[in-house]
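Quick illustration for those who missed Monday's session on complexes.
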Amino acid sequence: MAEAAAPTGLLADVVRFSWVDGPGNRYAVFLQGCNLDCLACHNPHTMPLRTPKARVVTVEEIVEDVARLAHFLSGVTVSGGEATLQAPFVAALFTALRDDPRTARLTRFVDSNGCATNAVWDLLLPVTDGVMLDLKSLDVTTHLELTGSTNDQVLASLDRLVREDRLAEVRLLVVPGHNDQEHLLRRTGLYLADHAPGVPVKVIGFRPHGVRAAARDIPAPTEEERAAYGRWVADEVGAALVTVV
Ligand code: SF4
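Prediction with iron/sulfur cluster bound:
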């Protein structure tokens, strides 16, 4: 019987050395296509599933590029768009990186919006060291308003990742006038203290740079406002776990 062809990926871009896509110096792979429609998206060009700007890549192509740079890297992160939409490709890539002696020591992380089914996590988690998960809002109505979707699958993903000890970080993008209320951020902190104890939380203040026209008039929070967001979350989860950017 003929062997099944290895899955290919639809690539938006790669960043060969990144310090903001997980721990250490990382090779970041940005896949094309997303299943959310976020008002505050900073990479709106990665949202459509079909665009002439994306290109098809093979697992081998990425592995060879990573192997060439492996001495300088701590790991590989697959982001997007939404990485889990191309789970068969990500699983094949992570398996190949794990099995290649040149890249085996590199950690393998996924950056996800959490809108992924159990079947997707079944495929990814055996070869994934950690997941950085976005929680756009704990409040379902606000999540719908910010992303076009409810947050039930995100919260289910969070619970599963905690159970399997794969939740590396929760990221909270705080958008003024939408999800920046003190009571909501404190409630989010309480929820995370309960559901994801000990997991680092990154509080990210919205910046209008690169966003779609609909979000360009949203003001960036001041330094004091960003500090307050961090404090409200830190009061519940513990200051040592919270970073504010
Ligand atoms: S999940 Fe990320 S890539 Fe997708 S629309 Fe939202 S911000 Fe953009």
